[in-house]
Amino acid sequence: MTHTSESNLTALAGDDFLPGPVLLLGAPGVGKGTQAQLLVTKYGIPQISTGDLLRGNIARGSELGLKAKEIMSSGHLVDDEIVNQMVLHRLQEKDTHRGYILDGYPRTLEQAKYLDLTIAGPIFLPRLPVLAVSIVVPYDQLLERITGRRICSTCKHIYNMFSNAPKVVGVCDFDGASLMQRGDDTEAVFVERMKTFEAQTAPVVAHYHDLGRFEEADGNQSVEAVNIAIEQAIIKLRGATRR
Q1: Tell me: the pLDDT tens digits for 8-31?
Q2: Of 67, 69, 98, 107, which is the active-site residue?
Q3: CATH T-level topology, domain 6-148+185-242
Q4: CA atoms within 13 A on the CB side of 16
Q5: Is 60 a catalytic residue?
């Protein structure tokens, strides 16, 4: 297997390379948040999260925020129309002109189609199309990452009973405090989260795959290696969309 270094990536992409809009996909536990932050830091582009947009609009008391708050208060999910409008407003801000990392959006096929049509419209020309990169880790590895996770009740240091266990079971190496397992780090919760993820993501993956704008990155490597794999995928796809 050929290994690509940071300098090789720079030579391949060029010093002025920008990824444009990138949708990072990945099941629970693949490290998507870590990889998103690495891309944000390297390229100086924002990470756009639907969760952040919802909280921000609600906190500001915007018209969309008030509508979302009412829907959420009644125990329902915020509909695509409101989420789409929040994203549209966010993408018109200046810091998105050089690209952005999408987190949690588009979550459905309808949202993906809306996003494609929107950023190809007159408001955003000449924007680059969205690329989708999925971080892939074997199911058994993900299960161990989630169910093996333990957190120190005091210093919050994170352990994993399979890959980074404490010296004494249930006790933090640094301060002797007890270790906790989060309520949603159980196998039963993980199985349900995976079912939801796969059901929602499959149509989005198929959409970008059919458009020739989808690649996978092996997530069962070091953080640095995964980051390089993601950048290789972005460079490959961006080159293809420009031809």
Answers
A1: 776 666 667 889 999 999 999 999
A2: 107
A3: Rossmann fold (3.40.50)
A4: 0
A5: no
User: Which of 40, 211, 49, 44 minimizes the C-alpha distance to 132?
Assistant: 211
Q: Does 182 qualify as catalytic in the annotation?
A: yes
Mean pLDDT of 62-91: 94
Q: pLDDT for 53-75, tens place per residue?
A: 999 999 999 999 999 999 999 99
SS3 labels along 197-228: HHHHHHHHHHHHHHCCCEEEEECCCCHHHHHH
Annotated catalytic residue, options 67, 98, 127, 193: 193
Active-site entry in 149, 150, 213, 238 = 149
Active-site annotation holds for 193: yes
Tokens of 109: 């096929």
Q: How many CB atoms lie within 10 A of CB 33?
A: 13
153: closest CA among 130, 173, 179, 184?
Answer: 179
The residues, any chain, with a CB within 8 Å of residue 88's CB and separated by 6 or more, are: 118
Are 87 and 54 within 8 A, CB to CB? no
Whole-number CA gyration radius for the chain: 20
- Residue pair 48/105 in contact (Cβ under 8 Å)? The answer is yes
Strands 158-160 and 149-152: antiparallel
Say what the alpha-carbon torsion angle 63, 65, 66, 67 is, to the nearest 10 degrees.
Answer: 90
149 is known as an active-site residue: yes
- Active site annotation includes 145: no
